[in-house]
Amino acid sequence: MNPKTALVVTSISAPNPVLRSLAAGAISHGWDFIVAGDTKSPPGFVLTGCHYLTVEHQQAGIHELGRLCPTRSYARKNIAYLEAIARGAEVIVETDDDNFPRDSFWQPRNPIVACRPVNHDGWVNVYAYFSENFIYPRGLPLDRSRDTPPAPSGKQLMDCPLQQGLADDNPDVDAVYRMLFPLPFVFDKDVEPVALGEGAWCPFNSQNTTFFRKIFPLLYLPAHCSFRMTDIWRSFVAQRVLHHLGYPVMFHGSTVWQERNEHSLHRDFCDEVSGYVNNDEIRTALMDITFEEDADIHQLLVRCYACLIEKGWVGREEEALLDAWIRDLKSMEKHIPYQECRAGAA
What we know:
Order of helices and strands: EHEEHHHEEEEEEHEEEHEHHH
Largest sheet: 11 strands, mixed
Oligomer: single chain
Distance between the termini: 19 Å
Number of strands: 13
Strand content: 15-25%
């Protein structure tokens, strides 16, 4: 049987064509579909096939984080993750309310994937594996955007509990790219997935991303940083922890296309400045962390965020939210202990 899968979105929109498409697909494929609202969400949200969390529901529910997480924050998606876990999810797939799913989006997820490993020490522009045209992912340092990525090795089966899919038409690029280069953009089809091993880094986002249960703690999105960096900096923390545990980060081709919600590119640029300035230093700082040998996945997560807080990249208020996240996870019966998290563990 396929593991129970939950689809998670946060939205301030009324049911739009994307949300209706996601709900219909979730019904057809037996997925749980959870949407976290916010204070700007319209009242009376109703969508068949969707488990909708109002702010009132989030704040009055079983999750401590729901009462602490700030409103008007993308990090309210964390409460939807917790709800999915409480409802028995074994796999969490996340996207946004402007990404239309293709048929391939609904394929059952499997952590064991035939991938092309990438062994490298430094930044890797993964998008270059999926197109010969110039493009780079949001969060990649700009001075690394035109680097030729290292050639991947031959395909092999790998355990990939974190899987990032691409998006066509309006892929996840930064404001600089959007202001200077033409869109829409379509990635090449039928490109084999790649898996970045220890030391090889590329930002990943929250727009078409799959997490398997043994790494659910790494879903955590920080609230006290730039909105345009919350999923990017989460990805840096996750990569540091995954590499320590012996797992790669897998990237695969497009299974969604984006009809992007209205954005101010100037505002996006301003929100991304902290990334342009700090992303390379963040990678270095995380790589320099020495973990305790017996640290579990929660302790690894806390140690990484302590680094980001100590350096001033994430606000100190994050500590209370992260602590609540971990307490909420530990309170659930389906919490997966650390000994099952290392690659190759039974």
